[in-house]
Structure formats: structure tokens, C-alpha cells
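Problem 12. The chain below contains 71 residues. Write out its predicted structure in C-alpha cell notation.
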Amino acid sequence: EAAKFVGDFKSLAKEADESLAKQKALELEIERLLRAVVSQDIMSVVQNNSVVKKENEYFKLWNDWYKKCDE
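Solution.
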């Protein structure tokens, strides 16, 4: 009876260790994916901000050119 209990306990402990290892692997994968998403979002914001800056520069150039043509 005691030997069976010890065997069951060891089996459950092994199962728990494997489950914890899987959970840790999943946590690391989620963290990696979140970092990738955040990095992509940052790149998107930087690119969009750059586009807005370019649009503003073109708008200013257009206005300057238009004013010169109007003179």
C-alpha cells in the first residue's frame, strides 16, 4: 500500500513538473509574441509619424510655391 502511494506521488510530482515546464514555455512564447506585436506597433507609429511629417513638408512646399506663383 505504501509503495503504491509513493509511486502515485512520484507520478503526480512528475506530471506537475511537466505541466509547469509547459506553462513556462507558453509564458515565454506569449512574452515573445507580445514583444513582436509591440515592436511592430512602434514601427507602425514611427512610420506613420514620418508620413505625416512628409505630408506637412509637401504641404509647406506647395504653399510656398503657390504664394510665389501668386506674386
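Discussion. The CA atoms of residues 15 and 41 lie 39 Å apart. Students who got a different answer should revisit the alignment rule from Section 12.3.
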